[in-house]
Design goal:
Oligomer: single chain
Distance between the termini: 25 Å
Strand content: 15-25%
Bound molecules: 2-phosphoglycolic acid
Shape: globular
Largest sheet: 7 strands, parallel
Strand order of the largest sheet: 1-10-9-6-2-3-5
Radius of gyration: 18 Å
Number of helices: 8
């Protein structure tokens, strides 16, 4: 896992946006896996800026979001579909029919989840999956105890997640109790994962996910099994990492390594 520590949330967001933008330029018809929550908001702002000022083109890009609250309509202000429209889709030239978010009102949830998985497969698979991390260690809504081989399905939210997300709702009682979420296994099939985290509140769980054991109690730790993960985190979120100096050393040595490879 490559671990990049940036000084603050703004720098984290810009660095993350560069990874996404480079992929979109290199492979204009790429498949992006997208995340919601407070963490990726700055990255989306930067991508919108790149679209407006640098002509970053999303017209051939396909997107799949990680999850959606069960019971919320797409036009509900706290639905993840609404979040994506507000924060990204309405401000770039992605084709609406190429954007996918699980349907929080699906009648037959199992069937919907199977179809979501099939659509990901048929699109050629996710090239780059953006991920936040919950304070309980979840990626998407894969709460502690989720199988590391899990697929898209309905999931019961933990009390911790409900409390964390209550800040977006008028009261805690309004936070949905269930979600439809890609599984850990689904996420691990992405060609590359980009894990983002900022703030001191994420320091403990980031240390567990990156340097702790692989365990379904911290589903983000499953990323240790993936061959291409880049974690872009800010100083606060990196606070409890024991091997932080080494991660920085690796970044410092990258140029030298590339120079040596070029010569060879
Ligand atoms: P946050 O949520 O970005 O709002 O902290 C992350 C998550 O729950 O995955």
């Amino acid at each position: 896992m490559r671990v990049i520590v940036e000084c603050d949330n703004g720098a984290m967001s810009k660095r993350a946006a560069v990874f996404v933008a480079n992929l979109v330029r290199r492979k204009p018809d790429c498949v992006l896996g997208l995340a919601t929550g407070g963490t990726p908001v700055g990255m989306y702002q930067e991508l919108v800026r790149m679209h407006n000022e640098e002509g970053l083109c999303f017209s051939e890009v396909t997107t799949f979001n990680l999850d959606e609250y069960y019971g919320l309509a797409p036009d509900h202000k706290e639905s993840y579909r609404y979040f994506m429209q507000q924060n990204l889709f309405d401000h770039i030239n992605v084709k609406p029919e190429k954007t996918h978010v699980p349907d929080g009102l699906a009648d037959d949830v199992d069937d919907h989840c199977e179809k979501y998985e099939r659509m990901i497969d048929e699109s050629g698979g996710i090239d780059l999956q953006v991920l936040g991390i919950g304070s309980d260690g979840h990626i998407a809504f894969n709460e502690p105890g989720s199988s590391l081989g899990s697929r898209t399905r309905a999931k019961t939210l933990t009390q911790e997640t409900i409390q964390d997300n209550a800040r977006f709702f008028e009261s805690q009682g309004e936070v949905p109790r269930f979600a439809i979420t890609m599984g850990v296994g689904t996420i691990l099939e992405s060609r590359r994962c980009l894990l983002l985290a900022n703030g001191i509140k994420k320091a403990k769980v980031i240390a567990e996910a990156i340097e702790g054991s692989v365990t379904m109690q911290v589903t983000a730790s499953a990323l240790q099994m993936h061959k291409d993960v880049i974690a872009v985190i800010d100083e606060d979120a990196a606070f409890l990492l024991e091997r932080r100096d080494y991660y920085q050393h690796v970044e410092d040595m990258t140029e030298e390594w590339e120079r040596m490879c070029d010569k060879g």
